[in-house]
Write a structure and sequence with these properties.
Shape: globular
Helix content: 40-55%
Structural class: mainly alpha
Keywords: Two-component regulatory system
Oligomer: single chain
Protein name: Response regulatory domain-containing protein
Number of domains: 1
Organism: Nymphaea colorata (pocket water lily)
Number of helices: 3
Radius of gyration: 12 Å
Strand content: 5-15%
């Protein structure tokens, strides 16, 4: 299933009629960023077990993305 933006992807994920095995996302997306989508996935009781692969297109964005992921993981663990 494909989504045009992060918010649509989130709606697809939480729709119980869908069975999602893997999420492929970009870091930069309209309506809800890849980082925002990842935060929602990690905090959802059923979605948090779905593997997520994200694409980034520059070293600058890669570093920002990795820092954001570390922040999300830190919050999730505490």
């Amino acid at each position: 299933t494909a989504a045009e933006n992060g918010l649509q992807a989130w709606r697809i994920l939480v729709d119980l009629r869908n069975h999602i095995d893997l999420v492929l996302t970009e870091v930069v997306m309209p309506c809800l960023s890849g980082i925002g989508l990842l935060c929602k996935i990690m905090n959802h009781k059923t979605c948090k077990t779905i593997p997520v692969i994200s694409e980034y297109f520059s070293i600058l964005l890669r570093n920002v993305f990795l820092q954001s992921i570390l922040h999300v993981l830190h919050i999730s663990l505490h």
